[in-house]
Automatic annotation (TrEMBL):
Name of the featured protein: Polyamine aminopropyltransferase
Comp. bias intervals (Low complexity): 465-474
Catalytically driven reaction(s): S-adenosyl 3-(methylsulfanyl)propylamine + putrescine = S-methyl-5'-thioadenosine + spermidine + H(+)
The protein's role, per its UniProt record: Catalyzes the irreversible transfer of a propylamine group from the amino donor S-adenosylmethioninamine (decarboxy-AdoMet) to putrescine (1,4-diaminobutane) to yield spermidine.
Keyword set includes Membrane: yes
Species per Swiss-Prot/TrEMBL record: Streptomyces gulbargensis
Gene giving rise to this polypeptide: speE
Keywords of the record: Cell membrane, Membrane, Polyamine biosynthesis, Spermidine biosynthesis, Transferase, Transmembrane, Transmembrane helix
Binding site for S-methyl-5'-thioadenosine: Q270, E343, D377, A378, P407
Binding-site residues, spermidine: H301, D323
């Protein structure tokens, strides 16, 4: 029988590796679900709560395998490697071909949690059994019967407690390493799909190797053959899937976006896809959600930009808008002296500069010397700008995705609008894209309530003519229930600091527009007012209100 530490330390090492793999599976599901479904807080809550519950279930189920702990642990690790390694690919396949991935997310969270929960009880059984066998000869040599071990002998309760402490410590440290490896190593080097598959391969090698080598005496010849076959089969599946990841992504992308994908790149922050036939205006998708429809984007950008330009507009700040389309509309005014675009993702701006179709759509706005681009988080950048009073803006344009519980929620918070007010010139104005008035009125009017709580007077309005099916295809998170069609309008809020609401109109000498006129804006304001919700609380950093 090998010395006890010969087994203990490899077991702790494997617990460390398996814990790291388990947390990677968990983070993979959270990240991919946030990308595919949206509402990152909800998806993280679903994954974490289901997985922790399932771990408890797995611990209870492991009691049935204690009599065959070695083969049970080996099969659990093989199953965990297969399920966890393939989870990201299965989730993306469900989204691409079935259009729904919430149930798949719950199913994989449940399965992974059950298997993770069974690991520690089975390993504890193996160590206790090994300790019992080691204690018998030791006790005999010491002149004591094996059944009457004295204090401090291996296998006593205090030693069992120490073993549990060691296992839990290795588990927690492994989770730390896995949690750090996921964003800093796996995602940038391998991506979500390949990262999960490689993690599964590491998992099955560590778990299977421990049982087949250090606990081989616990196995019958039949059990060894079974575990070896299972481990090799799991490795073969993971290796095959890894080799086919490129083809799978291409097929899934065609299923999601159609055959007209022109550009698909993964930046450090998101997936950016351009679609469209040659000679047609492109559609721009960010993380699977349609942000620019080439055929009707002018309706959105004209409504966003031109009402807020009614007044002084020498200095303009655009938050978001990395596609350059809002800047294109701003630059149509000869009185504009500078345009600052604060866009977090350099990849979007790079594509807007270099892709011929997108650059043509934005009028080559980034070639204009008046345009300056800042690649920083808008909240922190504006906070620094406001603290140092470096510059005041006549116009601030918030060109962001629809409000929701996402990382950009803070840019719809009362605190952000307070910072914006400090950065505006005395006659400065702010316009916010606030989502659909008709499809998500609560979220829209929460933006209005938040602006008013931050000291603004507001003028809500909307723009119609949104292309049918705008949110169809990959933008499934914004579909209306059962219709397969996206929102039919865009909602905006024009705001100025102080008690007097701004005038909703066009600047004298405004450029000729395809979708806006004085009568159009009056109708846009009436259309928004008909949906008004009252009594809504404001959204803040610590209490975001855009979940519904």
């Amino acid at each position: 029988m090998p010395p006890r530490d010969t087994v203990r330390y490899p077991v702790l090492a494997v617990v460390f590796v398996c814990a790291a793999c388990g947390l990677v599976y968990e983070l993979e599901l959270v990240a991919l679900a946030s990308y595919l479904i949206g509402d990152s807080v909800t998806q993280a809550s679903v994954v974490l709560s289901v997985m922790v519950f399932a771990m408890g279930v797995g611990s209870l189920l492991a009691k049935r395998l204690r009599c065959r702990a070695a083969v049970g642990f080996g099969l659990v690790e093989g199953g965990l490697a297969l399920v966890g390694g393939c989870s990201a690919m299965a989730l993306y396949a469900a989204f691409a071909w079935l259009g729904e991935s919430r149930y798949v997310l719950v199913a994989f969270s449940l399965a992974i949690g059950v298997l993770i929960g069974a690991e520690i009880p089975l390993l504890m059984s193996l160590l206790q059994r090994d300790a019992g066998r080691a204690a018998g000869p030791a006790a005999g040599r010491a002149g004591r019967p094996a059944g009457g071990r004295g204090p401090g002998a291996p296998g006593e309760p205090d030693d069992a407690a120490g073993t549990v402490a060691d296992l839990v410590a290795a588990d927690y440290v492994g989770a730390l390493v896995g949690g750090l490896a996921f964003p800093f190593l796996l995602l940038p080097w391998l991506g979500q799909l390949s990262g999960a598959l490689v993690t599964g391969a590491v998992n099955v090698v560590a778990g299977g190797g421990l049982v087949l080598w250090f606990f081989r005496r616990e196995l019958t010849a039949r059990s060894r053959a079974l575990l070896l076959t299972v481990n090799l089969a799991v490795l073969a599946v993971l290796a095959t899937a890894t080799a086919l990841v490129g083809d799978f992504e291409e097929a899934a992308r065609r299923a999601v976006y159609g055959d007209a994908v022109r550009v698909a790149v993964h930046t450090d922050l998101q997936e950016v896809v351009l679609t469209g036939a040659p000679g047609e205006p492109p559609d721009l998708f960010l993380d699977g959600r349609l942000r620019v429809s080439g055929r009707d984007e002018y309706r959105y950008h004209e409504a966003l930009v031109h009402p807020v330009m009614n007044g002084p507009h020498a200095r303009v700040l655009i938050v978001g808008g990395g596609d350059g389309l809002a800047a294109r509309e701003v630059l149509r005014y000869p009185g504009v002296r500078s345009v600052t675009v604060v866009e977090l993702d350099p990849g979007v701006v790079r594509l807007a500069r270099t892709d011929p179709a997108l650059a043509r759509l934005n009028g080559h706005a980034y070639r204009d010397p008046r345009v300056r681009v800042v690649h920083e988080d808008a909240f922190h950048w504006l906070r620094q700008a406001a603290d140092h009073v470096r510059e005041r803006y006549d116009v601030l344009i918030s060109d962001l995705p629809d409000p929701g519980i996402t990382p950009s929620t803070k840019l719809y918070a009362q605190e952000f609008y307070g910072l914006a007010a400090r950065s505006l010139a005395p006659a400065g104005r702010l316009v916010v894209h606030a989502g659909s008035v008709t499809d998500r009125p609560r979220a829209y009017w929460t933006v209005d309530a938040t602006l008013r709580a931050a000291g603004y007077a507001t003028r809500p309005y909307s723009a119609g003519g949104r292309r049918p099916g705008f949110a169809a295809g990959p933008d499934r998170a914004d579909r209306t229930s059962g219709t397969g069609r996206g929102p039919g309008d865009w909602g905006f809020v024009l705001a100025v600091p102080g008690p007097r609401p701004p005038v909703l109109g066009l600047a004298p000498g405004a450029p000729r527009l395809r979708s806006l006129g004085p009568g159009t804006l009056v109708a846009a304001a009436h259309r928004a007012e008909r949906t008004r919700w009252t009594g809504l609380p404001q959204s803040t950093l610590v209490h975001p209100r855009y979940g519904g």
